């Protein structure tokens, strides 16, 4: 497996009046294909700002974000391509899940999940798109809810629909910002099981969280402090559930050393 993302000296500065604050400060890191990278750090350390930069939602003030296209030598310098090229690239290569589900209220679950496929330039046959959406809903427990509107679903069901919408175009990278932040622990568990099962099938994931129980489902924890990479922890690749307790102890010790 090769690298899927390279971030070099990434910088983001916000200005309030004459005061400049570097919220992402010369941050460099790499993400491997098939990795489940967890981003942690104290509140205000720059996690969401980092995610928004690599998602192309915000423009960096310095540094490079290279997405390495599967099977191609070419790198796409995501921080320096036009807005139009970025939108097209993002539509097929990056799935995004936020804490608030951001489903379109006037569309059914089925229509919400179908939407990225409809927008995809390489329009597929309508029947095959329908089959893909229904199969995903079947696999992830939403098949009985496809005709409902988001307001008729629980928070956990809405988040499941948001994840399916994010992955329906099979993006090489899935970015998640606190995807379980508004869910109770049972709903959070279901969402994490879905993300884990996607990752086991090869989906690369970068996920921001404060939650230790969520973080131990990943393969690596990237710790951000004051906008820069302060440390990393790699978990044993074995995902047996009995090992989660061990991971939790490891992670607690890693975080405590950083004053978390
Ligand atoms: N649009 C903006 N304008 C000015 N300052 C901003 C903006 N967005 C974020 N910030 C500031 O940047 C810093 C980093 O914010 P960010 O949301 O990235 O942190 P975070 O680590 O995700 O925090 P949390 O864990 O609380 O969500 C904070 O001090 C925040 O106030």
UniProtKB/TrEMBL annotation:
Keywords: ATP-binding, Nucleotide-binding, Transport
Domain ABC transporter span(s) in chain numbering: 5-251
InterPro entries hit by this protein: AAA+_ATPase (IPR003593), ABC_transporter-like_ATP-bd (IPR003439), ABC_transporter-like_CS (IPR017871), ABC_transpr_LolD-like (IPR015854), MacB-like_ATP-bd (IPR017911), P-loop_NTPase (IPR027417)
Record-level GO cellular component terms: plasma membrane
Gene3D superfamilies: P-loop containing nucleotide triphosphate hydrolases (3.40.50.300)
Highest taxon listed in the record's lineage: Bacteria
Entry GO MF terms: ATP binding; ATP hydrolysis activity; transmembrane transporter activity
Residue runs in coiled coils: none
Record-linked PANTHER family: ABC TRANSPORTER ABCH.1, IMPORT ATP-BINDING PROTEIN
Name of protein: ABC transporter ATP-binding protein
The species this protein was found in: Schaedlerella arabinosiphila
